Amino acid sequence: MPRHCLSLPLLGTSTGRTLALAICLLAAIPAPTQAQAANWPNRPIRSIVPFPPGGSADAISRLLAAEMSRTFGQQVIVENRPGAGATIGIDQGVKSAPDGHTIFLAPAGAMAINLSLMPKLPYDPQKDIQPISMIALIPMVAAVPADSSLRSVNDLIAQARAKPGALSFGSAGNGTAMHLSGEMFQQMTQTQLTHVPYKGSGPAVTDLLTGAIPVAFVDLSSALPHIRAGKVRGLATLGAQRTVSSPEVPTMAEQGVPGYDAVGWFGLAGPAGMPADIVNRLSAEVGRIMRMPDVREKSLAMGAEPAPGTPAEFAAFIRSEIPKWAAVVKAGNVKAD
Fold first, then answer.
1. Which conformational region is residue 83 in: left (phi greater than 0), alpha (psi within -120 to 50 degrees), or beta?
2. Model confidence over 152-189: pLDDT tens digits?
3. How far apart are CA 309 and CA 133, in angstroms?
4. Helix or strand or coil: residue 36?
5. The model's pTM
6. How far is CA 326 from the centre of its chain?
7. How many CB atoms lie within 10 A of CB 67?
8. How many domains does the chain have?
9. In terms of residue numbers, what domain contains 171?
10. Same domain? 270 vs 230
11. Residues 133 and 271 in one domain
């Protein structure tokens, strides 16, 4: 027990003395320090992925874990904790000790969208989380069957305005970035489409191939093999710039929807309170790995465009994404499942 706690005044009630002693002891518990950071890591690092195994986010997390294990001399163990729109895994990470031995994948939904969709979100993405680095952008696309009469975004806008609500669009599910991208399109073009939610982009693309739905807003990686096979046509990619994987597909902004910018993404984060030195070392390592030619090639093949950056850059990006998606959710009266 710290010596100054023993010298607490003995005046007052026993309850008051007990409370004062408890406060004193809590204050004496050391927070993570730069001295502790110098010995980091001194045991295996837990890397939480808030998705099931499989998919680009999980695969890239495992690439990072393997490289980090070699660099840091401690095993980085990937732990899949899916559920509730990625909030279960993020919540577990947030509640871990901020000593750098627990990190987690931080996707767009859990970091920037769920705050508007889930009134009882168990964490605050700006107060409870320490951004470490962006990892990759996940381009999205508005796609149609190859034989569709919709040849451009202007065709889609014209047909949607001619018959409000008659056209439907599929997405990866209610409240996903793909769904909200479709909502953003309607709001910016003053059109009305009928949303058809699926359990992932894959099933939505399957129905697009059969003609069950006329349009799909999905992640590019799910549609790209079918675009290359000539079975699906990309009307527009949804980010501000054309994609590396499909540079021939023009953006929404290039086709008469100025300012349209919607992209999926995921980064690396940890619980708030991590020592800055550990955060910076992890960030530098993410940057090194994602710039490796073979990792970049594998990432692009999975539909993820490497985009590492500093902790400050990632934090600023998250801050910019929260109000953007909040406005879309509010205007579209979007509700989570």
1. left
2. 999 999 999 999 999 999 999 999 999 999 999 999 99
3. 5
4. helix
5. 0.85
6. 15
7. 18
8. 2
9. 140-255
10. no
11. yes
CATH number of 200's domain:
3.40.190.10
Count, residues in the chain = 337
For residues 125-137, average pLDDT: 96
The residue to which tokens 């597909």 are assigned? 249
Q: Which pLDDT score is estimated for 4?
A: 46
Q: What is the pLDDT of residues 276-306, one digit of tens each?
A: 999 999 999 999 999 999 999 999 988 899 9
Q: Supply the pLDDT for residue 8.
A: 47
Domain of 80, CATH number, reads 3.40.190.150
Please indicate, yes or no, if residue 214 is contained in any of the structural domains: yes
Residue at token pair 């992932």: 200
Confidence of residue 33 (pLDDT cuts 50, 70, 90): low
Could you tell me if residue 61 is left (phi over 0), alpha (psi between -120 and 50 degrees) or otherwise beta?
alpha
184 part of a folded domain: yes
Does residue 33 lie in a domain region?
no
Question: Are 280 and 292 members of one domain?
Answer: yes
Do 247 and 317 fall into the same domain?
A: no
Residue 335 to residues 71, 109, 173, 217, Cα–Cα distance (Å):
43, 14, 11, 18
